[in-house]
What we know:
Elements: E1 2-6, H1 13-24, E2 27-30, H2 31-40, H3 44-55, H4 61-71, E3 81-84, H5 90-102, E4 109-114, H6 117-134, H7 144-158, H8 160-167, E5 171-175, H9 180-191, H10 223-238
Parallel strand pairs: 1-3, 1-4, 2-3, 4-5
Adenosine monophosphate binds at residues 9, 31-32, 35, 52-53, 56-59, 64, 85-88, 92, 141, 150.
Amino acid sequence: MRLILLGPPGAGKGTQALRLVAKYGLVQLSTGDMLRAAVKAATPVGRKVKDIMERGGLCPDDIVVSIVAERIEQPDARKGFILDGFPRTVPQAKALDRMLKERGIALDAVIELRVDEDALLRRIENRVAEMKARGEPLRPDDNADVLRQRLEAYRKLTAPLVAYYRKKNVLRTVNGMAPIPEVTAAIDKALSAEPSAPKPARNGARKVTAKPRKPKTASRLGKKSAKRASSARKTAAAHKSPGRKSKSGETARP
Length: 254
Ligand code: AMP
């Protein structure tokens, strides 16, 4: 199985990914973890992205795409994987499409964790306060100001992926605000269900499938026409000649 977890920072993607790993035996591929490891090891990539990550911005697409391309080649990812935090932009999603196509594999589902941003901010503020109280080390990007930046990047660059994957018919949306076990159950259910129905495009570009026009029936005609149709029916019946036309142009059927 190959999945993507989509949702803003703090939506619980990492938590749910771990649960899916345990349940389906997949590997979790978190670009955030990979980039943090690169920063920690001070690799050339790590040095390039350190500042961007600390400010809550997005790292360049080419860097992230090549990290993922390399990672999905590893033997442990062959059975299946969960992408957590990737793709985050439309160009990344397109690069992923190409990568998967070249390998002859496809995505099974994209799970969108839908959350309320104000509640997310409260969540992170509480988490930071608790971690500080316990004396635990904080991530450099673990604070409300940086989270605001990250949410903005999500809204601008990542949120369009919801429509992107809906169009591809692989999107499943679950309520990420529910308690953790309920979100897990909703994901399980979503994985065995049909994808979310595609929504019509906005700005009037809505696709309309022409419906065949209904033939007029007595109930759709005005009262007078209905009366005429009924009397034509009677006349037709009297002449044992079905199919005569009423004045309204309707074929009166016995
Ligand atoms: P995460 O742990 O997924 O929240 O990611 C932490 C940070 O790593 C993000 O705020 C970005 O700076 C960077 N990052 C992770 N994944 C990506 C990605 N797919 N594209 C660009 N930047 C990323």
